[in-house]
Amino acid sequence: MDNIVPLKIQIATILVSIGFLAYIGRLIVRGRLREEYAFIWVACTLVLLFFAFWRNGLNIVSSALGVFYPPSLVFMGAIFAILIYLLHLSVEVSRLRAINKNLAQKIALMEEHVGGDNKTGRQ
Amino acid sequence: MDGCILAPAIRYIQDSVHRPHTRSRMMRIAAVIPAYNEEASIAAVVQSIRDLQHSHGLRVDPVVVNDCSKDRTAEICTALDCILLNLPVNLGIGAAVQSGFIYAWRHDYDVALQVDGDGQHPAVEIPKLLEPLSTNTADVVIGSRFLTKEGYQSEFMRRIGIRYFMWLNRLITGVWVTDNTSGFRAYNKRALALVQQYYPDQYPEPEAVVMFARNGLRIKEVPVHMLERQGGQSSISTVASLFYMAKVSFAIFFASLRQKRVREDHG
Lengths: 123, 267
Description:
The structure holds two protein chains of two kinds.
Chain A: H1 7-29, H2 35-53, H3 57-65, H4 70-114
Helix pairs in contact in A: 1-2, 3-4
Chain B: H1 2-18, E1 29-35, H2 42-50, H3 52-56, E2 60-66, H4 73-78, E3 83-86, H5 93-106, E4 111-114, H6 126-134, E5 140-144, H7 156-173, E6 185-187, H8 189-195, H9 204-214, E7 219-223, H10 241-257, H11 261-266
Parallel strand pairs in B: 1-2, 1-4, 2-3, 5-7
Antiparallel strand pairs in B: 4-6, 5-6
Helix pairs in contact in B: 5-8, 7-9, 7-10, 9-10
């Protein structure tokens, strides 16, 4: 049992995870983070918490997957999750840009229609 | 949505059926002028388009789309004899032009022109753009600097870029367009139906050509004179030109994969 996470680190990890979870909860309650975007953060934190409690878990999961060096599994998983989330955000930004464009065009056309700028050129 | 898109076309057909004598009514023409910080040139551009009425007997309504200019463009335009669309935020040239197309479509114009606000497209060349539309030999007409190589020919590096797009678009669509970056264009109602709904946002011109071809629009180029810009700044700086090339190539590639749009969404 020499390859197990030291107790101090375990406690620190648990505390940080719970703190992070509480912070996300607070953001949702205050309406500063939408639930659909919070979901991935909650899921990641729960995974972290899970392995923080189950100290030997990482070793068992890695060897089951045939990964020789357990931390590389952590990195791979984390990088993968981050990439997917970034892609999701890019899609989201593109959608917002499209919506923003439609809104701005609509405003310009409506403003012209109601003649807010006192134009004389309209028929 | 269907009814909204087709309504003007149907009304036009009904008009011609029930009142045959109105078939030869005057073509209604709108000139969409995207303007971002064009205080130096916009008044002259609008005036020169209005002057076509006297010189050529051609009534063209200028539709200035002020893309949230930081200078006095909006203020100047308020005093001009034009339709003014003020975008509340800066959207970029593609979305600005599209706003004008939407206006022209909703107000039942037969033809929409696209003319730059910086004065590089002389209004006297407009009849040349309209000719293929009135004879119904094209849906989209592009004014080209390079067909007869007269007038302002752009800088050396830009010409290389333009040549590159000529080959790229030819490769992808089989349509030979010598001046893909030209923003001096005319659209008939069929083309207007498409562009008022879909138009690329950023650096739209070369990509739009691919979109026209993919949607079965007849594209024709006519030789025109262009001038050097009369004021303001190009929307593409030298530093950004590499990004421009890459972005547009990318966009052209994906535009070529995209399905026909009008039929797909309103078939």
